[in-house]
């Protein structure tokens, strides 16, 4: 979508003007990965209008292949407006105008499935599944078991307002169980599925993915991985499990989630391997939170594609997220690779002292980034 960011704080009714930018879960991830040096293709649909022209050009400027983005002569490009406030506050407002948009009309009949499946990793989002029946059918097709499907990455992205009148939680659980890598926030898992008990309880509900990443807000994130016998053929083919060695130890508090969700666990689920790898997040001077989850996914996937150990992939996710958290926009270029390589290699004590503020991605030396909170 095209994003309109307020030029000053205040209610949408009071903001006199907005700056134009771009946003969207999958396109944010695509731009982050391309800016980090990976070959990326974005497949979507936009209107045959000026906003569509801007959106395609802006995504392409990050180095993303946009040659398979369709243009809809009837439906418009989606747009949205938001306030400058943090999404977690009551003052935050978002006005979406994407009902009937070109993207919401995507389906298995008007998307080049061969182009979608051509990469090593296919990243999808639960937001797209909520846009229309056609979009949901498309995601079900792309996550269906198939011998030569790419590695499927799925960000749950539960937005209750998008699922009004339907049980989106069940749909998202279905899609997540068919993916190879899943990203989900601890808070959204509780909201969607009633899961209580922390990351380990979420892993109990989602034992199928080869890798499950649970985002725990400002605390950090936990990654669970499956031993070599599990996971899809795609996970085995790309060596996903092998590059993420099992942790020596993990946290395992009591597991509890609502009885109404118990039946959603398959009758004979594969072992969940409950011990996860936790990596704390650095302290960040937050400007705005929108887009940080997409940036985290891009960073983690970049680490997986580079064959980094899981702890470094989690750190890379935190650093990509920090790049967005310290800017007002939904999207920001990640720090240079030499910067991320230096920071992900920090000793634990130095990593825990790390504090990142606006402009940190342009810092030349670790001393400018590492300081006591």
Explain the layout of strands and helices:
Elements: E1 2-6, E2 18-22, H1 25-35, E3 45-47, H2 50-60, E4 70-72, E5 79-82, E6 94-97, H3 113-116, E7 121-125, H4 126-131, H5 133-143, E8 151-155, H6 168-177, E9 181-185, H7 186-193, E10 195-196, H8 199-205, E11 211-215, E12 220-225, H9 233-237, E13 256-257, H10 259-262, E14 277-280, E15 283-284, H11 292-305, H12 310-325, H13 337-344, H14 348-353, E16 355-356, H15 366-369
Parallel strand pairs: 1-5, 3-4, 7-8, 8-9, 9-11, 15-16
Antiparallel strand pairs: 1-2, 5-6, 10-13, 11-12, 12-14
Note the main attributes of this structure.
373 residues, alpha/beta, six-stranded mixed β-sheet, four-stranded mixed β-sheet, disordered C terminus
Question: How does this structure look, described?
Answer:
With 373 residues, the protein is of the alpha/beta class. The protein has helices at 25-35, 50-60, 113-116, 126-131, 133-143, 168-177, 186-193, 199-205, 233-237, 259-262, 292-305, 310-325, 337-344, 348-353, 366-369; strands at 2-6, 18-22, 45-47, 70-72, 79-82, 94-97, 121-125, 151-155, 181-185, 195-196, 211-215, 220-225, 256-257, 277-280, 283-284, 355-356. The strands form 5 sheets. Strands 7-8-9-11-12-14 form a 6-stranded mixed β-sheet, with helices on both faces. A 4-stranded mixed β-sheet has the order 2-1-5-6. A two-stranded parallel sheet has the order 3-4. Strand 8, helix 6 and strand 9 form a beta-alpha-beta unit. The longest helix has 16 residues, at 310-325. Mean pLDDT is 84; it is low at 241-272 and 365-373.
């Amino acid at each position: 979508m095209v994003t309109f960011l307020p030029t000053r704080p205040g209610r949408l009714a009071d903001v006199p003007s907005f700056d134009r930018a771009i946003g969207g879960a999958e396109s944010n991830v695509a731009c982050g990965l391309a800016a980090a040096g990976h070959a990326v293709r974005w497949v979507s649909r936009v209107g045959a209008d000026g906003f569509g022209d801007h959106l395609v050009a802006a995504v392409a400027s990050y180095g993303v292949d946009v040659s398979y983005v369709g243009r809809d002569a009837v439906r418009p490009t989606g747009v949205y407006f938001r306030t400058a406030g943090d999404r977690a506050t009551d003052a935050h407002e978002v006005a979406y105008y994407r009902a009937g948009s070109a993207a919401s009309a995507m389906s298995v009949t008007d998307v080049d499935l061969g182009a979608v499946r051509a990469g090593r990793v296919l990243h999808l989002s639960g937001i797209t599944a909520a846009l229309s029946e056609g979009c949901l059918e498309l995601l079900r097709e792309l996550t269906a078991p198939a011998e030569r499907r790419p590695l499927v990455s799925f960000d749950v992205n539960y937005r209750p307002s998008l699922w009004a009148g339907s049980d989106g939680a069940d749909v998202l659980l279905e899609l997540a169980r068919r993916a190879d890598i899943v990203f989900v926030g601890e808070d959204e898992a509780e909201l969607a599925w009633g899961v209580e008990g922390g990351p380990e309880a979420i892993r109990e509900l989602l034992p199928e993915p080869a890798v499950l990443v649970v985002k725990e807000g400002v605390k950090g994130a936990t990654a669970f991985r499956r031993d070599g016998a599990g996971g899809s053929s795609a996970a085995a083919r790309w060596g996903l499990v092998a590059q993420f060695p099992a942790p020596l130890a993990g946290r395992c508090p009591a597991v509890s989630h609502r009885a109404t969700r118990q039946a959603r666990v398959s009758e004979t689920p594969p072992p969940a391997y409950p011990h996860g790898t936790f990596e704390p997040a650095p302290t960040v001077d937050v400007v705005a939170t929108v887009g940080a989850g997409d940036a985290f996914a891009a960073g983690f996937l970049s680490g997986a594609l580079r064959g980094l150990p899981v702890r470094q992939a989690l750190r890379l996710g935190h650093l990509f997220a920090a790049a967005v958290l310290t800017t007002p926009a939904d999207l920001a270029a990640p720090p240079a690779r030499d910067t991320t390589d230096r920071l992900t290699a920090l000793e634990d004590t130095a990593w825990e002292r790390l504090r990142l503020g606006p402009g940190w991605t342009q810092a030349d030396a670790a001393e400018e980034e590492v300081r006591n909170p």
